[in-house]
C-alpha cells in the first residue's frame, strides 16, 4: 500500500482493499481507466470534507505509475540525523517543525541530495548514511499545477561536535537537536508525512 498526503488528508493506493479497509475508512475508487482516475483525483482534491480515499487496482506498482502520471512529479531527499546522544535533528520553517530535506539537483544521486540538503540547511558535516527509510508522498499546488513530491529518506549519523545553524535564506528559523523523549511539541506541529518518517525511526 502507498500513502499520498493531500495536506492533512490521505489517499491510499492498494491492491488489497479488504485488508486495508480493516484499519482505515474512506471513499473507494476502483481503477478502470486513466481519465476516470484523473477525475477522481481532482474530485478528491477539491472536496476538503473527504478526509481519506482508497484507489484500488490489482497491480500496485502499475497503479502508482498511473497515479503519478496524473501529476508533475518532483523528487526530493532528506535525512533523520542522529547524534552521539541519540538525539534527532529538526528544523523549524514557516512556523512548522520539519526534517531537513530538499529537491534533487541534476547529476547527483538521491543519496547525495539527502546529504547535501542536511549540510546546507543545518550546517553540519560530515554525515554518514546508516540506512534508507520508506519514501513519502505528498501533493501541493505550484503555478496552477498539482505537484506530487516523492521524498526519499535516510537515517543518518553525525559523530561531530558542530552546533547546527539554520539556513536563514531558506526561511529556516531554528535547527536543533531533540531527545526522542521531548518530541511532543514537534508531533503537535509537523506534517503528516513527517510523522510517518518519525514513526518508522522511533520504535
From TrEMBL:
<feature type="domain" description="Nudix hydrolase">
    <location>
        <begin position="72"/>
        <end position="200"/>
    </location>
</feature>
<dbReference type="GO" id="GO:0006754">
    <property type="term" value="P:ATP biosynthetic process"/>
</dbReference>
<dbReference type="InterPro" id="IPR051325">
    <property type="entry name" value="Nudix_hydrolase_domain"/>
</dbReference>
<dbReference type="GO" id="GO:0006167">
    <property type="term" value="P:AMP biosynthetic process"/>
</dbReference>
<keyword id="KW-0378">Hydrolase</keyword>
<protein>
    <submittedName>
        <fullName>NUDIX domain-containing protein</fullName>
    </submittedName>
</protein>
<dbReference type="InterPro" id="IPR020476">
    <property type="entry name" value="Nudix_hydrolase"/>
</dbReference>
<dbReference type="Pfam" id="PF00293">
    <property type="entry name" value="NUDIX"/>
</dbReference>
<dbReference type="InterPro" id="IPR015797">
    <property type="entry name" value="NUDIX_hydrolase-like_dom_sf"/>
</dbReference>
<dbReference type="GO" id="GO:0004081">
    <property type="term" value="F:bis(5'-nucleosyl)-tetraphosphatase (asymmetrical) activity"/>
</dbReference>
<dbReference type="InterPro" id="IPR000086">
    <property type="entry name" value="NUDIX_hydrolase_dom"/>
</dbReference>
